[in-house]
Specification:
The chain is built from 24 helices and 7 strands. It has helices spanning 3-13, 16-21, 23-27, 47-58, 65-73, 77-102, 108-114, 119-154, 166-183, 189-216, 218-231, 235-245, 256-261, 278-309, 325-368, 382-400, 404-432, 436-459, 462-484, 498-507, 524-538, 584-599, 614-624, 629-640, and strands spanning 491-496, 513-516, 546-553, 561-570, 574-581, 604-607, 649-652. 48% of the residues are buried.
């Protein structure tokens, strides 16, 4: 074994933790933008099974939604919940059915809006939406774990000595969730089907039993209607108050964004193609509709029975029904054994709701940030991201002291912003296609969600404060990452057309000389003067064989690009290679390395020094993709090819 090889082996043995953390990065297919972005064929399932994967998040809100509705609306809870159901069925559902049609590969509404914006404003917009998405998903993990803890703590069989330690128990649940993903969790559908099936069945038992008690005890209904009339009187006033209270119930809208994110898991038709996956879209629409209908039925019935059968004081902080209204009825009416079984089912699905959110984060972050150069390269790996998200969840849990009520505002803010962005996206999509009726309908839905979002932020500003922290953190990390990756080779592939390839192969017989040229008028005098200047500055023969290289900057905010090089002879004598890229130095460095590998000769490239302040020119490179061209090209080559004997030559004069 050579000395170099022994050194490499020794160095590798020193980094077992790093190798383990990044083990899944190289294993992921190149076309997959995230560990859950495009699953293999064997991971495709029937739409109803995938619905259960979404349902661990969506259906689990039954664990705390009735209690939140009771706290927010009091005796008006059933009416306010009915408003929520109408918004769900007539607003959110049509919006996300359209999102499923326009974005069938799991990109969601964010990708639909990104297509409308380019350059840096588009990237900043993505970062803001990612901040709200992170708020939604992280708070889903912490809030669901906190509510699972509430069900554990209130169970009569739980030892009294272990009560009062909600934060510690919640942290343990979050850590357990993180451990599952560190182990290599990639497929949750089988577990989700079992959890959702059992959970919905137990909820059906509790709700049906409670409805029977409501029907057979009309006095309780009379007491409720009397309280309703005494407190509010006018039916129009009741509806008005229910509309005002509705933003507080926005937790019941969670799950739609996850529903479109898991679309790639849905089994389509045999005739489906990636361009037109009609079967997958149809399955996704069935998923969204079925989930919304099931959830709507449970929301309305559970709000009725919990409002009529549970005393108002039981909902207050510290009360037996706070955050666990249906569990309270299960214990009261069906016995402690059934209630404990219900608690275990609720605890399991609430904990696994965090798994659905974690999967969403692991799909979303690698899909955008590394591709934009706004995250370190290790952000493409699952395990480092799991550690980061778990630590953030720890901080949120400790900050909110594992309180379900305290986290409701932040969760609702994230959910509502994502739904509002989806409603806006489909409105713009319908307008672009000149579908006037749908444009008006989706526009009205978008206005409703804009109002709901603003009202929620005004009522519970803590949600937008947390989202602002996420947004600020993501922007800061993104800008630092973009700065630190400034000299990284960002070209995925170089493709030469036949003419360009001929120029290169002909030049391989002698010294390959390329001239970096910023074209203006492209007349003969321009090329003649440029050649004369380069010859004078670098002192090589005037009759030397040279090829001009011209780079057109497209979107400088893009990070990873492909180069398509075309060749042409202009004015009958000047050979020119033309290519488009987000960055001039990156394009030139990639072309030089490709020419070297193609010809097995080290090419020479000649630059003219850029006028102006070097610091200002470097900022121009970072923001606009051009500026300090010669030194940046050389630095990219140096980092990409440490061996000086194989590195292309860079000349500046």
């Amino acid at each position: 074994m050579s000395v170099d090889m022994r050194e490499r082996v020794r160095e590798r043995r020193k980094r077992p933790l790093r190798d383990w953390l990044l083990a899944d990065t190289a294993a992921r297919p190149a076309q997959t933008e995230g560990p859950y972005g495009r699953p293999p064929e064997r991971h495709h399932h029937s739409w109803w099974k995938v619905m259960c994967l979404t349902g661990v998040d969506y259906f689990s809100t039954l664990g705390y939604q009735p209690g939140i509705a009771a706290l927010a609306a009091g005796v008006l809870s059933p009416i306010a919940t009915l408003v929520l159901v109408l918004v769900t069925l007539l607003g959110a559902l049509p919006v996300y059915r359209r999102v499923a049609q326009d974005s069938p590969h799991g990109e969601g509404s964010i990708a639909m809006l990104v297509k409308l914006l380019t350059y840096w404003q588009g990237k900043l917009f993505v970062l803001v939406l990612l901040g709200f998405a992170a708020t939604d998903f992280i708070i889903t993990i912490t809030l669901s774990a906190a509510d699972a803890t509430a069900h554990i703590d209130e169970n009569p069989f739980w030892p009294a000595g272990l009560r009062g330690h909600e934060v510690i128990i919640t942290l343990l649940l979050v850590a357990l969730l993180g451990a599952v993903f560190l182990k290599g969790f990639t497929e949750a559908i089988g577990i989700a089907v079992g959890l959702v099936g059992v959970y919905l069945a137990l909820n059906a038992v509790v709700v049906v039993d409670a409805l029977w008690r409501v029907v057979t005890h009309p006095a309780r209904v009379t007491d409720w209607t009397a309280a309703l009339t005494a407190q509010h009187g006018d039916p129009l006033l009741m509806i008005g108050i229910a509309l005002l209270v509705f933003p507080k119930l926005a937790l019941g809208l969670s799950g739609f964004e996850t529903g479109v994110a898991v679309m790639p898991h849905i089994q389509g038709d045999s005739a489906d193609t990636e361009e037109k996956p009609a079967g997958r879209i149809r399955g996704a629409r069935r998923l969204l509709t079925t989930a919304a209908v099931i959830m709507s039925i449970f929301l309305v019935t559970s709000s009725i029975v919990t409002t009529v059968l549970i005393p108002a004081e039981a909902y207050k902080p510290g009360g037996a029904a706070n955050g666990r209204a249906l569990a309270y009825l299960a214990h009261q009416h069906l016995g402690e054994v059934f209630g404990t079984v219900y608690d275990l089912s609720t605890i399991a699905i609430l904990w696994f709701a965090g798994a659905s959110a974690m999967a969403g984060l692991l799909n979303l972050v690698p899909r955008y940030l590394p591709r934009y150069g706004m995250a370190p390269t290790w952000a493409r790996a699952v395990r480092p991201l799991v550690l980061v998200f778990t630590v953030v969840a720890f901080v949120i849990t400790i900050a909110f002291e594992a309180s379900v009520d305290a986290q409701g505002g932040a969760y609702a803010t994230g959910v509502l912003v994502l739904i509002t962005s989806a409603a806006t996206a489909v409105t713009l999509s319908a307008r672009h296609r000149r579908q006037h009726g749908r444009t008006v309908a989706f526009g009205i839905i978008a206005v409703i969600f804009v109002y709901t979002t603003i009202a929620n932020i005004v009522e519970r500003p803590d949600g937008v404060k947390i989202a602002a922290c996420f947004i600020a953190g993501i922007i800061a990390v993104s800008l630092l990452s973009r700065l630190f990756r400034a000299f990284e080779l960002r070209v995925n592939r170089v493709e030469l057309d036949p003419v360009a390839r001929q120029f290169i192969t002909e030049g391989a017989r002698r010294r390959i000389r390329l001239i970096a040229h910023e074209s203006a008028s492209r007349d003969a005098a321009e090329y003649r003067d440029k050649l004369a200047q380069i010859v004078a500055d670098n002192d090589f023969p005037a009759d030397a064989d040279v090829v001009f290289v011209e780079v057109t900057v497209t979107d400088p905010s893009d990070f990873e690009t492909e180069l398509h090089v075309t060749g042409a002879v202009v004015h009958g004598k000047y050979r020119v290679l033309r290519l488009a890229s987000s960055s001039v130095p990156n394009a030139l460095a990639a072309l030089l390395l490709h020419v070297r590998d193609l010809t097995h000769r080290r090419p020479h490239i000649y630059f003219e020094w850029t006028e102006g302040n070097p610091a200002g020119n470097f900022l121009r490179y970072l923001i606009f993709g051009q500026g300090e061209i010669a030194p940046v090209t050389r630095e990219i080559l140096r980092q990409q090819e440490p061996d000086r004997s194989r590195r292309p030559h860079v000349h500046a004069g």
